[in-house]
Amino acid sequence: MASSAASSAPAASLERRLGLGRRGGGMGLGLLGPPADGAGPAPPMPGLLRLRCAVQHYEWGRRGAGSLVARLAAGDAGPGAASDDRPCAELWMGTHPSAPSSLAPDVSLRDWIARNPAALGRAVAARWGGDLPFLFKVLSVAKALSIQAHPDRGLAAALHALRPATYRDANHKPEMAVAVTEFHALCGFAATQELKEVLRTVPEVQELVGKEESRKLLSVKEQDGGIGVRSYLKSAFTKLMVAGEEAVSEAIAKLKSRLNAESKVRALTKKEQLVLSLEKQYPGDVGVLAAYFMNYVKLSPGEALYVGANEPHAYLSGECVECMATSDNVVRAGLTPKYRDVQTLCSMLTYDQTFPEVLRGVPVQPYVTRYTPSTDEFEVDRYLLPSGKSVTMSPVPGPSIFLVMAGEGEIQAGTMPDNTKAKEGDIFFVPAHTDVKLYTSGPRSMQLYRAGVNSRFLS
Fold first, then answer.
1. Considering only Cβ atoms within 10 Å of each terminal Cβ, which end of the chain, N or C, has fewer?
2. What is the DSSP letter of 86?
3. Are 288 and 416 part of one and the same domain?
4. Can you say whether the dihedral through the CA atoms of 161, 162, 168, 170 is positive or negative?
């Protein structure tokens, strides 16, 4: 568990704070509304709720104390709790049923929100059916994630209806990663000139793509652009991705041998170094060669990458905060032992060749930087609060989730009479229309991240 509610709180007080009540003589979830008998006023909306959040132990995650996810999840258990040698890949904060967050005593955040829709704000509740529209995560990446893309709404609904065991919901999944450490990724297709250079200088790729598809791409003129280039790129990329396992394995073996030999007489390019690294992680995988078709992106801490629907990408290494629409739909085609849906991926991609924009955020007040993507579901704020300083977030008409990444301090929210202690790994849900004031304590700066609904939608 990422964090837990204080066990010392009296049961009755805790029930009132969480909006829990007795119905028909049994304990159940109650609405934060007037009592059924009209005997008294509605209890106030809680200022904030401490969350318990789930860790996903995917094989590509970092392990033990080397994983930011593991350290955050250790919570009150202390540093020794991060010594679990399982890979700790993702920390999920939200309501997605694959790994829902919960409140004490064992009440899911999703159920609590369903019974307290005022916590979302009227516009959010109406637009997204009474559920939290975003999923907040921390990722600790030790080895490459799959080459993948996320479907748009129409394709997501179709895939979910066709294969619900694989595509578990019908929602789209635009996402944004904000780098906490140096972060590396593949994202989108490389420019035509770079692809031409690959076909000229990487015979192993040209062999699998085939002479005809290679000729088409090599003959494209830069000023042509548009549909013609995309058609040729789609045909060449698909030819590579559907190549037989034996042919792929043989091509990668040749590539590895050639690059190792050439490294003795020249410096390998960053893309060549990456390809050799991917080969060690996923021997014989077609994704090793697919990396040549994609943009190689490096983010410094505080920089962000937005990935829209139907765009190919693969996170490679580093740690980040990630926010997305509430979905777990992933179409994979390489660098993974999981189910691959190659034909779906190759048919769904936009084949856009624009280098992805690196977002650096916009200061919204002292110590606070905001990352605002083009989608309505979410935005992310990064708080870097020096020792002895405070900052106030004015009430917004939508919900928020706060994660304390480093340092310690106090949070005052809404009408709460007392401040709440906050330290590394603490996670809080803040209902709509709640003002929040953050204070640091101790010698260290406090680093927090807030996920909320896009301000443009709320304005």
1. C
2. S
3. no
4. negative
- Indicate which CATH number applies to the domain containing 404: 2.60.120.10
Distance, in Å, from the CA atom of 450 to the CA atom of 433, rounded to the nearest integer, reads: 15
Helix residue ranges, H only, 242-354: 245-262, 270-281, 287-290, 342-348
User: Is 343 within any annotated ligand binding site?
Assistant: no
End residue of a domain, out of 333, 359, 385: 359
Query: Binding residue per annotation — 313?
Result: yes
- Domain annotation covers residue 68: no
The domain containing residue 246 runs over which residues? 185-359
Q: What is residue 243's DSSP assignment?
A: S
Are 335 and 281 spatial neighbours (Cβ–Cβ below 8 Å)?
yes
Write down the pTM of the prediction.
Answer: 0.89
Q: What is the DSSP string of 117-186?
A: GGGT-HHHHHHTTTS--EEEEEEEESSPPPEEE---HHHHHHHHHH-TTTS--S----EEEEESS-EEEE
DSSP letter string over 190-233? PPHHHHHHHHHH-HHHHHHH-HHHHHHHHH--TTT-HHHHHHHH
**Kindly report the CA angle at 440 between 438 and 443, in degrees rounded to 5?**
170
96 annotated as ligand-binding:
no
CA-based max dimension of the chain: 85
Q: How far is CA 435 from CA 212, 220, 271, 308, 414, in A?
A: 62, 56, 47, 31, 5
Place of tokens 């209806």: 161
| Cβ atoms of residues 332 and 345 within 8 Å | yes
Q: What angle do CA 43, 46, 48 make, to 5 degrees?
A: 175
List, for residues 379-409, the tens digit of each pLDDT value.
Answer: 999 999 999 999 999 999 999 999 999 999 9
If we measure between CA atoms, which residue out of 214, 269, 219 comes closest to residue 237? 214
Q: Are residues 350 and 236 in the same domain?
A: yes
Whether 148 has a binding-site annotation, put simply, is yes
List active site positions.
Answer: 332
Q: In what order do the strands lie in the sheet with 400-406?
A: 49-50, 427-430, 400-406, 446-452, 379-385, 368-371, 362-365
Tokens of 44: 């106030």
DSSP 61: B
pLDDT at 419: 85
Range with lowest mean pLDDT among 56-60, 72-76, 144-148: 72-76
